[in-house]
Amino acid sequence: MTAVRLPPGYRIEPLRRDHPPRSAFHSGQEEVDDWLANKALQNQEKHLSATKVLIDPVGAIAGFYTLATAQVDFADLPPKLFRRLPRRNLPVAVLAWLGVREGDQGQGHGRRLLAQALRDSYDAGQIFPFVAVILDCIDDKALRFYQRWDFCPLPGHNYRLFLSWSQLQAMATGC
Q: Do residues 62 and 100 make contact, with C-beta atoms less than 8 angstroms apart?
């Protein structure tokens, strides 16, 4: 996974209090918009998650993603993944939120944000190991988007997807 190329004038940076009003961001998904407007910075300041924003050439937020960590019970993972793992709660990276402004959808920003989120996860995994990246899809459209990136459903959870560490590592290293 090489560096993510952004369109001219765009940049990705950690969410800050002095960014443009987060309430002006509208993705078409009320839950996604509410997270960015009301909870992302608060959770980041409490060191519960980290949010990065895609800033457009005029300084507005065009998209964002939020990463966090969690644990899952080994039994919640597919047998092929947990076969050689200890039978306890296991660390995972969580892609908690990803949103693109309505007017910017269909321009590849979601793909770019996901690529950067996975790059950040891979880099973090070099220091704080985890067994997979997991996420919860908000709807069928999101499900199809993530499945194009080789995310697979966790057993018994059609909208909770995972990407194993070995898959992430292969993406990041090209192997």
A: yes
- Residue 84: name the closest of 1, 166, 170 by CA: 166
First to last CA, the chain: 10
* Residue 89 β-bridge partners: 73
Residue 24 Cα to chain centre, angstroms = 21
Q: For the residues 5-11, what does the mean pLDDT come to? A: 95
Average pLDDT value for residue range 23-42: 97
Distances (CA, A) of 163 to 76, 112, 154: 14, 17, 10
pTM (2 d.p.): 0.93
Q: Hey, where are the domains in the chain?
A: 11-173
The confidence band for 82, taking pLDDT boundaries of 50, 70 and 90, is low
Nearest CA to 99 out of 150, 148, 149, 135 is that of 135
- Side-chain-side CA neighbours of 88 within 13 Å: the count stands at 2
Q: Which helix (H) or strand (E) segment is 19 a member of?
A: none
Residue that has been written with the tokens 């190329």 in this structure: 5
Count of H-run helices and E-run strands, the chain: 6, 7
Q: Which CATH architecture has domain 11-173?
A: 3-Layer(aba) Sandwich (3.40)
For 125-152, the pLDDT digits (tens) are 999 999 999 999 999 999 999 999 999 9
